[in-house]
Amino acid sequence: MPLTPELHAHFVHILRSQIGPITKGRIFVALAEDAGIRLGSGRQNGKTATVAAFAKSLRLNPRTVRWWLRALRDLADDSELLDAVEREMLPIKTALRLKRSREKDALCTVTDEDRAVAAATWGVTCSDLRDFLPQLHGEAHLIYTDLPYTKDALPLCGELARLSKPALTPGGTLALMTRLPMRDVLNVMCPWLPHWATIAYICHGRDAAHFWPTGLWSFWKPIYLFGHRKDGLVGDVVFSAGKEKSLHPHQQDVPGHRTIISRLTLPTDLVVDPACGSGTSGEATLREGRRFLGNDIKPENARISRARLAALTGRAVGGDVELGARRGNTAHPMSRRVRTRAPQALSS
Ligand SMILES: C[S@@+](CC[C@H](N)C(=O)[O-])C[C@H]1O[C@@H](n2cnc3c(N)ncnc32)[C@H](O)[C@@H]1O
């Protein structure tokens, strides 16, 4: 039943009075509906109006009205926050920020189930990365590796970028830790994937520093990030926990790698290290509830990695890992702010 002019005037009066913003938002929407107005961009056919135009016709501030409507829409499934905004105990902006941060926390929190999936699905193969990477077809959310730092490994960096491109999910990242000269690394890798950020990996203490022939002691290493920019990356400095060299002369530390992996991926994402050495990235990945696929050209290193991950998960695996089909949700979850579908198991 349409509102009488008196009732309409009454509701407009309510909109300007001391009631909660959520109720005001609801009355605003009801008034628009009653007038047969579909609130939108104003570009559709039929009786439409922009929020601003309709708000102005009621002599309301369009900016304020937009905040009411955002609160109504974005807080709809959170009755606690909705109630706090309605009682004006919480400004709308703060409530929306809280909601976003709660969603992000839920998305990034590693559950026991995530760890169980990771523990049940890892694999380590032994081959040249140039043979290994072509077996992946858009499944890897993160390809992270630490190739040898010798000059003759530079062409391999280019090959890594070339072969990672089709192996990554559409929003995936290639991350390379290396001490090779920055200009050379970017020259060989950027033709294949765009470089979008560099993480500084801080190595504590004199022992961990790198001594350059020029006399410079370097206390950090770059990790170059290629592929698609992520809005979920919260910082570009990561601290190493110190030297860990019990399994391999070039072994990295687990805590620092857990930070890298947790910043660049979400639980149950697939992390691939095509030159995994002693399997540090594997241990960090599984501890963070992500799935892991490792590979190394040296049988001895593949064996060390397998033994390490088997000890961690209580699951001994064979050599070759057969990859499941491409996952349905291929956009990068960081930017979509949604948890990805349950992962396909990697058969051992
Ligand atoms: C710096 S180490 C990695 C160390 C590892 N991050 C760790 O924590 O133990 C580099 C690794 O790359 C491997 N590698 C070198 N060339 C390779 C290639 N073409 N394909 C696959 N792995 C390769 C080496 O065998 C070595 O284990």
Explain what you see.
This protein has helices spanning 5-15, 21-34, 51-57, 62-74, 79-86, 92-108, 112-121, 129-132, 154-167, 182-189, 205-208, 254-264, 280-287, 299-313, 333-336, and strands spanning 38-40, 48-50, 123-126, 140-145, 168-177, 195-202, 210-211, 217-218, 220-227, 237-239, 270-273, 291-296. The chain folds into 2 domains: 5-107, no CATH class; 112-336, Vaccinia Virus protein VP39 (Rossmann fold). It is built from 15 helices and 12 strands. With 348 residues, it is of the alpha/beta class. The protein is elongated. Helices cover 43% and strands 17% of the residues. The longest helix has 17 residues, at 92-108. The model is unreliable at 319-348 (pLDDT under 50). The strands form 3 sheets. The chain has an 8-stranded mixed β-sheet, sandwiched between helices. Strands 1-2 form a two-stranded parallel sheet. Strands 7-8 form a two-stranded antiparallel sheet. The protein binds S-adenosylmethionine. The site of S-adenosylmethionine has 19 residues, from loops.
